[in-house]
Amino acid sequence: NQYYCTMDKFFWYMDKANVDFQKSKSDKTTFEAGADLEESNFFSMHEEQDTLQFRSLLATYDLKLQTLFCNKVEYVRVGDAKIYPDSMKVIVRKNAVMDPFKNAKIVAPFVTRFHTFTNADVNISSRKKYEGTAKYPYYDRDSNLTVLTMKSIKYLNSVTQAEGEIAQKDNFKLSKEFDYYGKVKIVAASPGIFCDGSTKINHTCKSFDRSWLSFKDTILAKNIQIPITENPVNDLGRKLAVGFLWKNSASMDSVTVYPAFLSKTQGKDDPIVFSSAGYVQYNPSSLTFQIGEKPRLSGLSDIGNLLTMYTETCSLTGLGKISFGVDLGEVSADSYGSIAFDNAENKISMD
């Protein structure tokens, strides 16, 4: 059966169909290993399986079926993953073909244990190859569980990778502050999940339109930071505004400054008074959404623009470079300070 088993110093080779079990009175031979066995005791001799191996404490070989029934198998190591078979059973048939695992658990990488997959249906082909489907338990910052479907999981390019897709109708949340739909990819070496889709910020402020934001980045569930480019767009590729803008109008009476927080612009070419880019995050201690570069958000630096939306008052403040959008001819001027939108009074002030 192209497998051999080691029991202490006793070698049991099973590479031929006519293995002679002299002590067996039937076509089945059962053997048991001690519970203190720590190393693998079954090794594949198939040249394409690259010494695939595992440990079984109780196994039966059926000579008639040329099938090896292994029990008490904790896991099978493939690449960077440990695959835990359901009911701790592994069946190896003729030519070293292992039965597909149903409802298995996968931990990858097995050293750092960044990711755990459940309900996995996988085929193991060698010590460095497996593939199938699985479920991924996603826990958000508040430990709320959502089970994601991975349409594929495999060991590829020296790392376990899993891919899935979340539909908009699924109402999935990266956290209660961030809705999400789109593609998800898990590369086991990274503790986060890679998202290629759109997010929508959850708040109750009617002053700001809530639009889907398109992005690509690796997200950490316990500290969600969504990248914001200098020219953000929604899921349909349309421009979004971040900060304060002039409302472009032919009538001087209609020229005003209005606030926006990942919202649709009121006019197609409204000039920017203040904007911020980098990442958007939610601060649960201050109940605010903030947009800025990571050092600015973490408080390690006061350089760069910072935009803050207060979810309780629905006010908006910006700190940094302010552009008045005025052509001064031969003179240029850079202005820095603060700009704020007071939602209660519906007024914007600058300092």
| Portion in beta strands | over 45%
Number of strands: 30
Query: Which descriptor suits the 3D outline?
Result: elongated
Q: What is the CA-CA span between the terminal residues?
A: 81 Å
> Would you identify the regions where 5 or more consecutive residues have pLDDT less than 50?
7-25
User: Taking all residues together, what is the mean pLDDT?
Assistant: 89
Oligomeric state of the chains in view: single chain
Based on secondary structure, the structural category is mainly beta
Rg estimate, integer Å: 30 Å
Number of helices in the DSSP assignment = 1
Main sheet properties: 11 strands, antiparallel
Helix content: under 10%
Helix-strand layout with pairing:
Blueprint: E1 3-7, E2 10-14, E3 28-32, E4 42-44, E5 53-54, E6 58-62, E7 67-71, E8 76-78, E9 81-84, E10 90-93, E11 97-98, E12 101-108, E13 115-126, E14 129-139, E15 145-156, E16 159-166, E17 173-175, E18 178-187, E19 193-201, E20 213-219, E21 225-228, E22 240-246, E23 257-264, E24 272-275, E25 278-283, E26 288-292, H1 294-298, E27 306-310, E28 315-322, E29 335-342, E30 347-350
